[in-house]
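Hey, quick one: can you model this chain's 3D structure?
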Amino acid sequence: MASPTPVQSFLGGIGLSIPVHTLLLLNGNVFGISGFLHRAIRGGKEALFAVGGIVLGGAFVGLLERGGPKPFGFGLPQILASGFLVGLGSKLSSGCTSGHMICGISRFSLRSIVATSTFFVTGVITANVLHRDLPPIGDMDWTLGPSGKYLLALQAIPLAISLVLAFTAPPIQLATDDKPRPPRTPLRALEFVSSGLEFALALRLSNLTESTRVLSFLLLPFHSAFDPSLAFLAAGALPVSIILYQFYRGSEKPLLGGAWSVPKGGPIDAKLIIGAAIFGVGWGMAGICPGPGLVNFGRALAGGAGIGPAAGWLAAVAVGGLLA
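Sure thing. Here's the predicted structure for all 324 residues.
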């Protein structure tokens, strides 16, 4: 019987907010994992480094825990359908749980608030249709778990890399023009890998990588299987993200050069809402979104178990994104 993990999820949520905003400060990029994945599939070099960092973090987790992710409790057709809908929906709506929920809400983007609300509603509906047979949840586990302290300690390594990059970058000159600084390409690549690695470790600490926990959360408190861990994650991630965004946006000139790539807003149109709704259905089918999917793929590679389902889900995401 699984138990809610409020401490792990809360600290994991805080941990998620930090690489999101070091990437913003140094590279000027939104930490949107579905965007990274879709661009990487099309050969985007920086996106490949970000995806690689997340998979690498998952591999570290697999080595630490000496095993792969927990198996899905349903068949391959549902896994593939979930991945396809997540890929299609995230491409249409230009975001997922990281890009819209953590990054978008932290800058009070109305588009992201609408998208998050939409995919949450369709995720809840889907989970309640498909997964009402989940077993009751256990008592609260207020510990860090067997690997929590190691995951926290490991996050210090990529954070230290980002801090070194930040403190050794040339100071920003507040010029009168809006021309971006020339990109310091190797250092930007290092930051993409570093922030991806740190994000992956925080995801595992938060337990968002466990699909059953996500599905149990989407069942809501009226069900005996309801797991509030995801709410503790949000309680850790969102306040810190809101504060860091207001501080890190600064002059809107990345320390490592390149363009400031934060969206300035956009229309709340049918494409956004339909895409978010489709994403929510896929999320509610399997309890996995792009970040945890990449982490679990890394865990599977390192742990030698669950490679097929993890790879199949990601392949379906890729197909959905390409067809959007």
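One thing worth noting: DSSP finds 13 helices and no strands in the chain.
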